[in-house]
Every structure is written in structure tokens, then in C-alpha cells.
Amino acid sequence: MNNPFTSQTFVKIWMKHFGGSNSVIVFDNLKEVKFYKPKYLPFYINVGKNLTKGIGYNYEGDSPSLKGKALLIYDVPEYFDIKPLKSKRYKLKKIFQYRGFLMNISDFENTEQYIKKQFSSKNRREFRSNERRLNICFDISYKFYHGDISKTDYDFVFKHFYRLLNIRFSGKNINYHHLNPKKWDYYKALVYPLIQEKKASLLVVYDSGIPIGITLNFHSDKILFETITVFDIDYYKFSIGKQSILKLLDWCFENNYEISDFSKGKFDYKYKWSNLVYDFHYHIIYDSFSLWSRFVAKLLESFFKLKLFLRTHHFNVLYRKFLYKVGESPKKTEIKQRYKVQKLEAFELDSSYQKIDLKSQKYSFLKHPIYTYLFAKPEPIENIKVYENLNSEKKFVMIGENQQLLIEFDC
Fold first, then answer.
1. Residue 25 carries which DSSP code?
2. For 224, how many CA atoms within 13 A lie in the half-sphere containing its CB?
3. Secondary structure (3-state) at 315
4. Fewer CB within a 10 Å sphere, N or C end of the chain?
């Protein structure tokens, strides 16, 4: 109920960015879903196309408005339980495309009860240990924006959202389609008003006021759709992604939600956290009395089965890597550097070393080795002092309360 991907705001903004000069079309027996008809295609497509996380509908009997037509509805989750079309004339084809993953929490009372069922005691201790280490080392805070956010805060968060996603996927040398300028402008325009309407939210993890983890969600009455999530890879050891899932679960229980849906996309963490795997289908509704409508429906079915075959054989990954190489994706400007760490038994400062500001962008490459050390031996980051060897840009000394390290880069 109250699907965010069929809301008036969603439809208006999606059409503005992707609808071109096409008009919104409503069929009187499929009122929940809005359609448009591309100029050169012989069928109608749901507004939102493949940028929703789940479309549902009720077929309210036959209508002359469907005569001779074919309709394509992307991304219909199996668990939405769409009722069969009880019609002699109009038929439905379901084409499987993706696996989806979700956490059905309707039979649980709280987060602790769910993770106790889902994970071993060792895993649960690890969650608590990682959270404790994170809070010892950094000034961590969480903010869940749902219903209200200032435009200034929103722009600030989205700026870091883009930055973190860019770093994350350029590190994999893969084109990430959401970072396409047209799509990113769409998300930036969409999410702000939907947060005000409580149809979207942003969970932000801050370190000293700077976002280091962000999750974009959409909301229906009882379902939270986790849509895009990213965290700062320098904090990898601290498992910010897991902490974010736990915070979202807490919110879902506090607000009487029944499902937290990870949607499509095969990632290890989805298998571990989900208690239900489901199918995403594309639905094609067509007029079986019309030869043309049957032909279009068959053509669409064959096309999406071919896409599934190519995806199953990883052609989509090769395609995204190709797009990255030819320059469609923004490139990461930071250069990866290899390094080695050596424990110092005794170290005395002299004039060849100069203290540096670890918060300076110039020295951002030091965060990974230092944060890795902090995970192993937690202490507040404010205690850490870092010195640069003036005779070599490759050598740095880190001094903490527990030990001293020489960090040497192989540039």
C-alpha cells in the first residue's frame, strides 16, 4: 500500500527527467500504475521503468482501453502476490529477470531477536565488538532523515553520497549506472521532496560531522526498500555496512514495518542477512484477440529472455567495465599506493620529521593504514600523532598510546 514508485511526486519527477515529450497515460482498470508510450515503440511502459524497487497493481476487470495494446511493467516482486488476470481476452506473461532479497521481520519482536535467528553467537559478538571499536576510535553519530531535512543538509549529504560512490566503484573499475549524470540529477531532484512526504529516507553515519556511510531508502506503509548504500572504504575494517543494516532494522521495529527489502542484485551480505529470496518478474499484459498485440508480447518476451541469458553469462559485467574504460563513468582522482607497516620499538623525534594534519586532504592516503591499526588496537583518533619524514615523501611515523609505527609507501 502507498507505493512510493507510483506516487504523484515520483511520476512527475521521473517523467521530467526521462519521459521526454510523452504524456502520462492511465488505464482505468490499472489505476495504480501510470504508463507512457515511447514514440517509436509499439507498446506502453510503466512510469519509472527499471528505476523502481517494486511495482504492484490490481487488474480491475477488462477495459476497452486495452484493446489491441501491449503493456510492459518492470520489476514486479513475486511477494507482492499479484492476482491472476481473470479474462478471456487479456493475458499476462511473466518473465523472470532477477533474484530479490529481503528481511521479513513480521514474526520478530526486535532486532536482537532477528539477528539471533539469522547469525551465530560469534557473528553477534563481532557486530558488538565492531561497533564498540568504531565508537572508541571516532566521533560517530547517526541521523535518519525521514519527514524532514533542510536543503543545506540535503545538498551536503548528497555531495558526499556522490563522492563515496565514485570512489567505491572506480576502485572496482566498473561503470555504476546510478552515477550517470542524468540519473544522478534525477535522484537528487527526487529524494528531497519524497523525504518530506515520508516516502524516502537517508540513513547517514557521520564521523565528526562528515558522512562516512549513506543508505538511500524508499518507503511504503510497511516496507522499507534499501536502494543505494555506500560507506567510506577507509573504515572497511569497522563494518559500517553491517552497523547501518542494524540501525535500519531498529528503525523498522520502532515504526512497525514488516519488511526491509534489499531488492535485486547478488551480494554476499544479502544472502547472509535475508530470510527470504524472491523473484523479480517483468509483466506483459496483452490483447490475445489481436495478432499485433500477441506479436509484440512475444517479441518482448524473447528480448528479455535474451537479456537474462547474457546476464547469466556475465556479459553485463563486461559491458559495465567497457563503459568505465571508454570514459562514461567519473574517474577516481586518488592514486592507490602500496605500503608496508613496521613496528618501532623505540623512536625519538628529530628535525627530520614534521607533524602533519591527518584531516588534510593532502594526506588522505594515510587513513587506510592508520584506521587499520586503530581497528586492531582501538584508541581515540585524537590521540594519534603522525609525522612526515622531510627527507622522504614515502615515510611516515605514527605515534599512538599503545605503539609506534613506521609507514613506508612504495610509490
1. B
2. 30
3. helix
4. N
